[in-house]
Amino acid sequence: MLETALMISLGLIVAAMAMNVLRLAKGPDVPDRLLALDTLYVNSIALIVLLGLWLNTKTYFEAAILIAMLGFVGTMAICRYLLRGDIIE
Amino acid sequence: MSFTLLAEGVVAFLLVAGGVFAFTGSLGMLQFKDFFMRLHGPTKGTTLGIGCVLIASMLYFTVTQREFHVQELLITLFLFITAPVTGHMLAKTGLHMHLRFTTGTRGSLPELRDEDVGQSRVARPAKARHPWRTRQSRQRSRQKSRLPR
């Protein structure tokens, strides 16, 4: 049961990441691409957690935490740049 | 034994629910017509989906290794705090850049200061050209296809 659920979840999240990449490629404006990147890193955290479940290790959670924090900071930095033309005033 | 089976069922349900929510969020981001509509999918659906997946992982490791695992809760908490902030900043960026929206999208933010809302629409970059088909060659091929009729 658990393996089937894991496979279903993996397939759905990989499909979601593929759709994010599609939006990243064709998004008409910069904020669309930024939103696609933001969703892409959130989905990659889910993928890493599923990998940890599959391999039955908790080695990868540090990587997930790191991706979460750096992704947030990166999104904020690009938003600041688009809003103000400057990141740290 | 039955408790383990119950926990397994809950973990499986949470995993599938998380996958479905993440998929739905990304589908909304791909399919909606407008940036301000597209913002809704990832900020709600994907956040809920990843929360489900992380709680499933926490439950699984707590049951199998017989000790509490709270690291996943940390990521969940962090994502649930940062997702609204990101959505707010992205919406502000969209308003600032005067993105075009469809007629169904309504609303303006009168409380935004003038410096937050840009004065004019940001110029779009020119549409990318096809690598080998220029406009003239396309017209030529169109004329060729019209000739036989």
Q: What is the gist of this entry?
A:
Chain A is mainly α. Chain A contains three helices and no strands. The model of chain B has no long low-confidence stretch (mean pLDDT 79).
Q: Can you offer a commentary on this structure?
A:
The complex is a heterodimer of chains A (89) and B (149). In chain A, 84% of the residues lie in helices and 0% in strands. Chain A has 89 residues and is mostly helical. In chain A, helix 2 runs antiparallel to helix 3. The longest helix of chain A has 26 residues, at 30-55. Chain A is flat and about 50 Å long. The mean pLDDT of chain A is 89. With 149 residues, chain B is mainly α. Chain B has one domain. In chain B, 66% of the residues lie in helices and 0% in strands. Chain B has helices spanning 2-31, 35-38, 40-65, 71-96, 135-146. In chain B, helix 3 packs antiparallel against helix 4 (71-96). The longest helix of chain B has 30 residues, at 2-31. The N and C termini of chain B lie far apart (77 Å).
Radius of gyration of chain A: 16 Å
The H-and-E topology of chain B, N to C, reads as: HHHHH
Give the percentage of residues in beta strands of chain B: under 5%
SS field, number of helical segments of chain B = 5
**How many beta-strand runs of chain B?**
0
Indicate the mean pLDDT of chain B.
Answer: 79
Which residues of chain A sit in consecutive blocks of at least 5 with pLDDT less than 50? none
DSSP helix count of chain A?
3
Shape of chain A: flat
Low-confidence stretches of chain B: none
Order of SSEs of chain A? HHH
Instruction: Describe the sheet with the most strands of chain A.
Output: none
